[in-house]
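Reply to dn_fold:

You asked what the input looked like. This is it:
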Amino acid sequence: MSEKIYAWLLRLYPSRFRETYGDDALQVFRDRSRDEKGIVLSLRLWLDLFVDLAISVPCEYFYAEPELVAASAQHPFNGTPLFYVVRDESPRPGALVLGSMLSLGALVTFSILLSQGSYHRPL
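and this is what came back:
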């Protein structure tokens, strides 16, 4: 069940990322879920995954491809920056919304965990 959820979450990444790293990412997930048993370790695994998703999904959509960077270095307009837009990849309709929700959930969970550890009774 967890592997299916993770495979679904991998669909948030751009297709070029999934083609290159999808199988390896699933294998790392399988290895970690096999080795990290118990509630605390499972929660840590999912927290790591959500934090990684919240950070890396937007980065992958805005990643500058090496051939575009090389092309911009060779443009004839000396000193004038050129901005290339990724042509074939655009974020899926719900990717940014889901990424924002995951980020918010991770931040709320993290803040709750921190507040539980530092709770002291007033004297």
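The chain has one domain: 2-62+91-116.
Hope that clears it up.
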